[in-house]
Amino acid sequence: MSAPLANRDGRAVFLCYHSIAERGPEFLALPPGTFERQLDWLRRHDYAAGGLAELRRLGAGERLDRPTVFLTFDDGFRDNAEVMLPLAQQYGFRPIIFVLPTHLEDGAPFTWPEVAADQAADPALMRSLTWAEVEDMVAAGAEIGSHTLSHRHLPELDDAELARELTESKALIERRLGSCEMVAYPFGEWDARVAGAARDAGYSFGFSLPQGPQKHYGPHCIPRVNVDSRDDGARFAFKLSALGRRFLLSPGAEQLRAAKRRLR
């Protein structure tokens, strides 16, 4: 396994975003001003933009020339085209966007149960990109991966349902864009069976979003660190540091989160 895929050292940083918007769910929407300050920080600290080519190099055990940040975006919010991409381009970064291809025909609303209240509160925000917007983003340098068909909890599915979520979403994206080598698991949830199914479906890389420690890592279980509206200034810098990421992906971080939940 390539050590940088563990997301715990200074060579490669894997971050997870969702929406870039002035308002929206606290843990999904990041204000554009905050995002721009993060991009400026990354540029000033000489981070290179990471994408599929850099993932292949890491997977092959190569060492990247500079610290590299992978800016990944789950769900394919419409504001990724309208707000996020112009800012990323302005600062010299290219995003990886994980989309639900079944939502792209007409920019369908996000309706899975976990975001139902957010959808009701802000239906204009909680909508998908369209195929035309995705194609324009690809032409501008963005990279596209799968977020499955219907944003289900993959470890809970039986083998047939799991394979369908992974293979059919990949096929739909390949039919429109030509290739699809990356997948981000909905809710960041995975286990060894999910990672194996992603490999069997033909994905080269799979991304998780651990809410606690993730001991195991590899091409099909790359842990990311979530970025939300609280991550400005020193908090963002801490998440980018190797020490910060080692802590956030450790048992200690989960114990701290559990203690905070008990105090609420």
SSE layout and pairing:
Blueprint: E1 12-17, E2 19-20, E3 29-30, H1 32-44, E4 48-49, H2 52-59, E5 68-75, H3 79-90, E6 96-99, H4 116-121, H5 131-139, E7 143-146, H6 159-177, E8 182-184, H7 192-201, E9 205-208, E10 222-223, E11 225-226, H8 234-240, H9 242-248, H10 251-263
Parallel strand pairs: 1-5, 1-11, 2-3, 4-5, 5-6, 6-7, 8-9, 9-10
Helix pairs in contact: 1-3, 6-7, 8-9
* CATH level-four homologous superfamily name: Glycoside hydrolase/deacetylase
Q: Main beta sheet: strand number and arrangement?
A: 6 strands, parallel
CATH level 1 name: Alpha Beta
Hey, roughly how much beta strand do the residues contain? 5-15%
Structural class: alpha/beta
Give the tally of β-strands: 11
Q: In percent, how helical is the residue content?
A: 25-40%
What's the order of the H and E elements? EEEHEHEHEHHEHEHEEEHHH
> What separation lies between the terminal Cα atoms?
40 Å
Shape: globular
CATH topology: TIM Barrel
**Integer average pLDDT:** 93
Just name the CATH architecture.
Alpha-Beta Barrel
Count of individual domains: 1
Total of helices: 10
* pLDDT < 50 runs, ≥5 residues: 255-264
Round the Cα radius of gyration to an integer and report it. Answer: 17 Å
